[in-house]
Design a protein that fits this description.
alpha+beta; Nucleoside Triphosphate Pyrophosphohydrolase; about 20% helix; globular; NUDIX hydrolase; hydrolase activity; Nudix_hydrolase
Length: about 140
């Protein structure tokens, strides 16, 4: 089966102290797995605006984007999906995580628990990248 054209989407690595904000996905692909908040970029919407909007919709959290981390191909043949994921680093500003939109759960997770909770190696890699690029302070 041929995949449809890639869909532009965003992901947000929102750090708060020694924790990262994660959601448990409520829809395919990777349904039920822990992941980063994010989603599709709407027509006419800037990628950075989409990142802030998706973070708010899925978790209720407000954050400040601190930079672009990477662009990742999320190719999921079993779900018939191909996303071009634009991943941003962010620092928490306010709000307690509450699952919304298509997230089943949302919570801050200790950075030392990321390896055990997250199945997809690309998600683990971009979280590590965000932590490595974080400005001490």
């Amino acid at each position: 089966m041929a995949l449809p054209a890639p869909v532009p989407a965003v992901g947000v690595v929102c750090l708060h102290g020694d924790e990262v904000l994660l959601i448990r996905r409520g829809t395919p692909p990777r349904q039920g797995e822990w992941s980063l908040p994010g989603g599709r970029i709407e027509p006419g919407e800037a990628a950075t605006d989409a990142a802030i909007r998706e973070l708010r919709e899925e978790t209720g959290v407000e954050a400040h984007l601190t930079g672009l981390l990477d662009v990742v191909d999320g190719i999921f043949p079993s779900a018939g999906r191909h996303y071009v994921l634009i991943d941003y680093a962010a620092e928490w500003l306010s709000g307690e995580p509450v699952a919304g939109d298509d997230a089943l759960e949302a919570r801050f997770v200790a950075l030392d628990q990321v390896e055990a909770l997250i199945d997809w190696s690309e998600t683990r890699r971009v979280i590590a990248l965000a932590v490595a690029r974080r400005t001490p302070g």
